[in-house]
Each structure stands twice: as structure tokens, then as C-alpha cells.
Amino acid sequence: MQRFRVFLFVFALCWLSLGAAPAHAQERDDWEVFETDLYSLGDQIFSITLGTVFPTVFVGRDGPITHNFRPPVGGLISLGYSYFLGAHVFLGLDISFAFNRTIAKNMYFAVPFGIYGGWQFLFRRFEFPVSLMLGMAPQRYVDMRYMGMFMRLRGSAFYRFSPEWSFGLNTDWSWYPQRPKRDGKPFPEGNVDGMVMGVTLSARYHF
After folding, report:
1. Are 99 and 196 contained in the same domain?
2. What CATH code is carried by the domain that includes residue 162?
3. For residue 151, is it within any domain?
4. Could you tell me the pLDDT band of residue 88, with boundaries at 50, 70 and 90?
5. pTM score > 0.85 for this model?
6. Do both 106 and 145 map to the same domain?
7. 22 falls in which pLDDT band (50, 70, 90)?
8. Do 94 and 11 belong to one domain?
9. Residue 80 and residue 91: Cα distance in Å, rounded?
10. Dist CA 116 CA 129 (whole Å)
11. For 145-160, what is each residue's pLDDT tens digit?
12. Can you tell me the mean pLDDT for 13-19?
């Protein structure tokens, strides 16, 4: 009888150990172990971004233009949405509101929006997305308005705080070409290519 009780006790311990192992392994697969296939088709991200923008170089028809901006001069806030096509590749939409203040205390406003695509590198809980965005940017300065294209190249570093949230830093370079017209005709003398740098912080919600 005593041997039977010992057998039951050992059997119970083995059964409990085997029952707990799959749950523990699943938990490790879901979060503690980071593989390159952490993302898969259909994973999505919603992000909010806030930071500072620095006008850098402005180039006109006759070469570089000495502009009247003085850093730090402006800010940016944006909302973004990303959709993953696989473990690393993603597409997305973004809309931003940006402003810059000049030495003369005038304000320049822009609302760039567009689509982007990118690739994300993974290392444990760190994620490094790189993206290229193309879109349009309504712009206003004093009583002047302009609607033109823009392009943004962005590199980021994020820390995956939890399965749902990650936080990180972005650095980007944006190109704002202005091709104005006069009396409905091209006006090459007014062409300007504006280069703007941005340093921003983002919070991302993963779902």
C-alpha cells in the first residue's frame, strides 16, 4: 500500500510538470524569446509622434539660399498607421502638422500627409525601422499658400516595452520642393527646394 501511494505521488508530480511545461513554453514563444518572425502578415501598428524640426538647407535656382530660420525653430506632431506584409516589410499612412518660427516671428505651417513603405530590423526587444514616405504638403506662410509634394526618409530605434507598446526615437530628413506658377505658367525663378531635419519621439501601439 505504501508503495502504491508513493507511485501515485510521483505520477501526480510528473503530470503537473508536463501540464505546466506547454504553458510556460508558449509564454516564452510569445514574449520572452524574440525571433525574426516576431511580426507576420496582418500585424498592425498605430503611432503618435511628437518632436522638433530644423530647417537646414534651402536651394533656389541660383544656388543655396540664406534663410531666416534659427534652430530650434519648430515642432511636429503626427499620427501613423502601419500594416506588416511579413516579418520585416511594412506599408503605412501618416499625417502630420508642422510649424516653424522665423527670426521675424512669423509662422510657417505645413500639413504633410502620404504613404510610406519600409523595412524593420529586430534584435531582442529592440526594433529599428527604416522608411521612405511620399506625399503632399499644404503649406502656409503669412498670406502665401502652396500645395506641393514632399518626401521623407526616416530611421528609428524602438524598445518593445510590452507586447502592445513600444517607445522610441526618430530622425528624419524631408524634402519640400516648391514649383510656383505665375499667371498659370511655370515660374522657374521662384523654384525652391527646402531640406528639413526632424528629431522626434514616438509611442506605438501594436495590435
Report:
1. yes
2. 2.40.160.20
3. yes
4. very high
5. no
6. yes
7. very low
8. no
9. 11
10. 12
11. 889 999 999 999 999 9
12. 44
Mean pLDDT, residues 17-46:
59
Residue 183 lies in a domain: yes
Who's near 179: CB < 8 A, 6+ residues apart? 148, 186, 191
> Do 101 and 168 have their domain in common?
yes
* Gyration radius of the chain's alpha carbons: 26
How confident is the model at residue 203, as a pLDDT?
A: 97
**DSSP secondary structure, the chain, as one string:** -HHHHHHHHHHHHHHHHHHHHHHHHHHIIIIIS--TTSS-TT-EEEEEEEEEEEEEEEEETTEEE---EEEEEEEEEEEEEEEESSSSEEEEEEEEEEEEEETTS-EEEE--EEEEEEEEEEETTEEEEEEEEEEEEEEEETTEEEEEEEEEEEEEEEEE-SSSEEEEEEEEEEEEEE--EETTEE-GGG-EEEEEEEEEEEEEEE-
Domain-located, residue 38? no
Q: What is the pLDDT of residues 89-142, one digit of tens each?
A: 999 999 999 998 877 788 889 999 999 999 999 988 999 999 999 999 999 988
Q: Are residues 27 and 82 in the same domain?
A: no
Contact call for residues 121 and 127 (beta carbons, < 8 A): yes
Range of the domain at 3: 1-33
